[in-house]
Amino acid sequence: MSHDTKGRMTEIRWHARAGQGAVTAANLVAESALAEGRYFQAMPEFGPERMGAPLKAFTRLSDDPIEVSNNVEFPHIIVVLDDTLIGVVDVCEGLCEDGTVIVNTTKSSAEIREVLQVADSVRVATIPATEIALETIKRNIPNTPIVGALAKVTGVVALDSVLSQLELSFGRKFSQALIDANLDSVRRAYEEVVVE
Amino acid sequence: MTHIKYTEQTTIAATGNTFVTEAFRQVEPDALCAYPITPQTTIVEKFAQLVADGDVATEYVCTESEHSAMTATIGAAAAGGRAYTATSAQGLAHMWEELYIASGLRLPIVMANVNRALSAPINIHGDHSDIMGARDTGWVMILAESPQEAYDNTIISTPVSEDLLLPVMSCLDGFITSHSIMRGDVAADATVKEFVGEYSPRDSLMFGEPRTVGPFANLGPTYMKVKKAQRDAMDRGLEVIKRVGDQWAEITGRSYDHVECWGMEDAERAIVVMGSAAGNARAVARSLREGGEKVGVVKIRTYRPFPLADVGAALAHVKAVAVLDRAETFSTLAGPLAKDTIAALFNAGVTVPVRNYIYGLGGNDVKLEQMYQVFDDLTKVDGDGIATSVNMTPRYLGIGPCSYEL
């Protein structure tokens, strides 16, 4: 089920609307890789950011030091934090043939596959991350649950690494109740994600 | 300094700006006088927080402009304090006259510059337009490829500036390096403190005999003598930077070279580049090498003083050179790094075709295909009679098909 990440660099592109926490998610994945002794890079594409505007962020993970610093053009994994971006932005641009798309949506993965029109070799996973966020964190921030889905579907980072990194980085700013809610959201998404 | 042995380091995940702030925190200068500007902002923001929290004893002076920031930094340094600042782009441009005063007064100031495009049109992203405007102001300039190098360069800058009595600019590419979270190692606080040592200024307005700083030097050769002394200090810079870099390398295990070569032992085609794009060039060279192509990359880390001999030696056996400039200086000649490289080649008696490219202005994404294109172009200038000499007209990369006309 998981990617063979040994010896190659995994490139992830995030699509979201400003305010949904895509940058935090991209950073969380990169930082989780630190606990695993791997190399990483996380960077947003800085534009004139306005709440709700489409944005991109990038994460690279590798067993070896990362040299390149350009935007991710040919991602292995694409994460879409808002399904209303599909059709507005070409979210699948440059996706590898054996790539994976993870979408925050209440639609079925079959429906999403049809709209995305990706090759059969591409895996499509869906997760109602917004619902999970509203139920656990009580806020419409689907970023942490979708990282749980990413961990399950691709294996690029381990669930435990994500959970411990989340506790570490959120622990500096948030209450224990909020941290627990976030941890819960990650675990739930890990369990509930559907791969077609 | 040399007796400090390899100490334990902590591996962290942080942005380039956080690595720079970490270096600032560990050195803990007497004063940091700055004005926030994108993409430098998070350095000053985080450092101001450290001051407010009492984590450092540094006096933080939040000025009303960069001109004032550099003036205050000069004042703090002249008073005898270890003085730091940080800026970007328009901020660096706004400091311009003060940059000359800092170097002319021989004040050991350290400044982090987060390289950014200059307006107009307005653009907040990374390129080398700002630092190329400050290239001839008498500052030592060191460029980082990565957050790790930004940290190391910033720490090295303090002993270098205090040895040479010259201000030092530690430069990192805006957003690409300043805002990317990457892995890197930081030394223990005590190690850094011991490495930079207690500061005892050679001259000071505050301590010792009363003295004048920056008096009139209007008639006769005094002004020229001062400039000559500055020039001599800059000439000595290569040796001092290398020595301090080597001392830091002993502690960290990370080497310092003015010029970092990859594949240059037998490369026939080479790219000369500075800053974050060096990694892109190297990644492409690596993949071309796997296909048997003899290509290499020469990364310039020390830019001022320019490592003329090192660059000449690195390129002594190539058949064609491409120099990548991340700034347009409108000279109607080649870009600044290309002109420096051509001087190095001439100095070394190396006559090879040189091509110049302008790339990545205003943060324009440095796609790997651009590097493939450059290496491919170099196969065409090698002896086919099109143009085997130095071509002083740069080509623009990444702006569309027109940029690849040969």
Fold and architecture overview:
The complex is a heterodimer of chains A (196) and B (406). By secondary structure, chain A is α/β, with parallel strands linked by helices. Chain A has one domain (9-195): Pyruvate-ferredoxin oxidoreductase, PFOR, domain III (Pyruvate-ferredoxin Oxidoreductase, domain 3, 3-Layer(aba) Sandwich), CATH 3.40.920. In chain A, 37% of the residues lie in helices and 20% in strands. Chain A has six helices and seven strands, in the order E-H-E-E-E-E-H-E-H-H-H-H-E. In chain A, helix 1 (22-35) packs across helix 5 and helix 3 crosses helix 4 (143-154). In chain A, 50% of the residues are buried. Chain B has a seven-stranded mixed sheet, with helices on both faces. Chain B starts with 8 loop residues before the first strand and ends in a 10-residue tail after the last strand. Chain B has helices at 16-27, 41-52, 66-79, 89-94, 96-104, 129-133, 147-164, 189-196, 222-252, 277-290, 308-314, 336-347, 368-381, and strands at 9-15, 31-34, 59-62, 83-87, 109-115, 140-143, 168-173, 181-187, 259-262, 269-274, 295-300, 302-304, 320-325, 354-358, 395-396. Chain B is built from 13 helices and 15 strands. Chain B is an alpha/beta fold and 406 residues long. Chain B has two domains: 10-252, 3-Layer(aba) Sandwich (Rossmann fold), CATH 3.40.50.970; 259-396, 3-Layer(aba) Sandwich (Rossmann fold), CATH 3.40.50.920. Helix content of chain B is 40%, strand content 19%. The mean pLDDT of chain B is 94. The longest helix of chain B has 31 residues, at 222-252. The A-B interface holds A 27, 30-31, 34, 39-44, 46, 65-71, 73 and B 11-13, 124-125, 173, 175-177, 179-183, 276-277, 279-280, 282-283, 365-368.
